[in-house]
Amino acid sequence: MIKLFKFLKPFRFIIIIVLALTFLHTISQLYLPTLLSDIVDTGIVNGDTGYILRLGGLMLLVAAAGTVCTVAASYLSSKAAVGFGRDIRSKLFSHIEGFSLNEFDRVGTASLITRTTNDVTQVQNVIIMILRIMISAPMMCVGGIIMAVSKDAKLTLLLVVVIPVLAVVILAIARKGIPLFRTMQKKLDKLNLVLRENLTGVRVIRAFNRTEHENRRFENANRDLTDTAIKVNKILALMMPLMMLLFNLTSIAVIWFGSIRIDNGNMQVGDLMAFLQYVMQIMFSILMVSMMFVILPRASASSARINEVLDIEPEINDPEEPVKIFNRSGFVEFREVCFSYSGAEQPAVQDITFNAAPGEITAIIGGTGSGKTTMVNLISRFYDVTAGSVIVDGIDVRDIAQEELRAKIGFVPQQSLLFTGTIEDNIKYGKEDASDEQIRHAAEVAQAGEFISNMEDGYNSIISQGGTNISGGQKQRLSIARALVRKPEIYIFDDSFSALDFKTDARLRSALKKEIKDSTVFIVAQRVSTVMDADRIIVLDDGKIAGMGRHRELLDSCEVYREIVYSQLSEEEIA
């Protein structure tokens, strides 16, 4: 958790003010019992009403000043803690954005959400507690001991017995609670995962009538978290009764032994009242510290989880001195490329070598799991190659700044993803400054213009989260329009025609020819009809190139391609 304190540096001036205000509040609280002692021992005993009123008025002023200091310190400490939480969330988000897909797979989306939200809130809350309690409590404790000794040193020996007992109780409870708090955060991850899967997969769940099964999954995860939380709170619930028992026993002991000293003439009544208040302040300050143990273990577990994310060094980074691309053409070359996923037994792709020039369409076809998507992901540098090199415009992609590399690429993913907002916003996601004419042209080429014009608000129609209010084919066409509006040098269509009917597919490919004639195009597809007219067809089988050439060449020379063609087309279509 100490590692996260560096995020408090921007608020150090506020923290200094909080320290000063807390010190003034502590002084006021320590001064009040002394004033009360003087009123009792001097004013009341002597019947001096004026003296009582003067000291009483001073007590009110001191109490008011202490209240103002407390309110100001609370406000400023909250401001610092909330700003601290904001900065950590911002740092986490920007750090996570730099992760490669391997890092996302390793930590998990559900866990990253929990760490960025709930875990940061836990740490933020403990910072507020530290600034409000951990600073004032030691001051109050030390000051209370000094003032108690000044009133009666012998009676102060009671604290030598009480404080160790109090410390043992707090440590015992904390020792039991800390492991459970760590477990709670992991179980919260599990609950978040189940809930997220239920919300995103609601259509599949209903289609397969698995609602009851998912309810049981959620109930089990929820019950698991609840049982752990109840166990933790049962342990922590012991703290308050034990503290109050010690408080009351200490008060009885102070009054008992104090009355004996008053009877012997070694102490005055006012001093006993002041001493009792000082003892209560000391005990209360220790109690406030003990309250930290309610939140500190969970915050400690949360901070460890946050640091775990921040300590991950992204595998894919920009080079220290990136090479600028001056030849803006879109030429792509694979040189003996191999790539293996983390923990995989064998490479996903291996020994891939080919060139793709501007104006050419390179199609990639093969069975499921043959490595088609992996290949195109290497062009965008979503992963780094294990061996060999991917070269764009004569430069290894690892030597190019990621932003500059991806600015050259128009990417249409296998799973069409749209964002909450209007249709226009989603198309402009490819190019923020796109004009209305460019947006409409991209939509027309992508064969999306017709269904957009039929919607009530046209291009201002709202797309719900994940694009759930439009069909799969419509999502694909909007994703294609988003790439087209960018007018990149390299197009990557990763199985992005699969949800289109044959008629729309044909119209779209016909319209695309004019639009992408000067660009390098990669098409990943399952349909032979989609790739037949490509300048180069790469046939993948178990991550290796089984054949490469045009449609007719591959029919004669590549058995894998021939099997795919015969499984999809009739003899008349092949002829």
Task: Report on the architecture of this protein.
By secondary structure, this protein is of the alpha/beta class. The protein has three domains: 2-310, ABC transporter type 1, transmembrane domain (ABC transporter transmembrane region fold); 318-408 and 489-498 and 519-575, 3-Layer(aba) Sandwich (Rossmann fold); 416-487, P-loop containing nucleotide triphosphate hydrolases (Rossmann fold, 3-Layer(aba) Sandwich), CATH 3.40.50. Helix content is 63%, strand content 10%. It has a six-stranded mixed β-sheet, with helices on both faces. Strands 2-1-4-5 form a four-stranded antiparallel β-sheet, with helices on one face. The longest helix is centred in the N-terminal third of the chain and has 49 residues, at 49-97. It is elongated and about 120 Å long. The mean pLDDT is 84.
Structure summarized in a few sentences:
This protein has helices at residues 12-46, 49-97, 101-107, 109-134, 136-151, 158-200, 202-207, 211-237, 239-263, 269-310, 372-379, 402-407, 423-428, 436-445, 449-454, 472-484, 502-515, 528-531, 551-557, 559-568, 571-574; strands at residues 332-339, 349-356, 361-366, 387-392, 395-396, 409-412, 421-422, 462-463, 490-494, 520-524, 536-541, 544-549. With 575 residues, it is an alpha/beta fold.
Question: Any descriptors?
Answer:
about 10% strand, alpha/beta, Rossmann fold, about 575 residues, 4-stranded antiparallel beta sheet, ABC transporter transmembrane region fold, 21 helices
Give the fraction of residues assigned to helices: 55-70%
Strand order of the largest sheet: 6-9-10-3-11-12
Q: Based on DSSP secondary structure assignment, what is the total number of beta strands?
A: 12
The percentage of residues in β strands lies in 5-15%
| Main beta sheet | 6 strands, mixed
Based on the coordinates given, report the CATH architecture of the largest domain. Up-down Bundle
From the alpha-carbon coordinates, what is the Rg to the nearest angstrom? Answer: 35 Å
Mean pLDDT: 84
Which residue ranges are poorly predicted, with pLDDT under 50 across at least 5 consecutive positions?
none
Alpha-beta content class:
alpha/beta
Kindly, what is the distance between the CA atoms of the first and last residues, rounded to a whole number of angstroms?
70 Å
Give me the CATH fold name of the largest domain. ABC transporter transmembrane region fold
Number of helices: 21
CATH H-level homologous superfamily name of the largest domain: ABC transporter type 1, transmembrane domain
Shape descriptor reads: elongated
Question: What count of domains describes the coordinates?
Answer: 3
Can you tell me the CATH class of the largest domain? Mainly Alpha
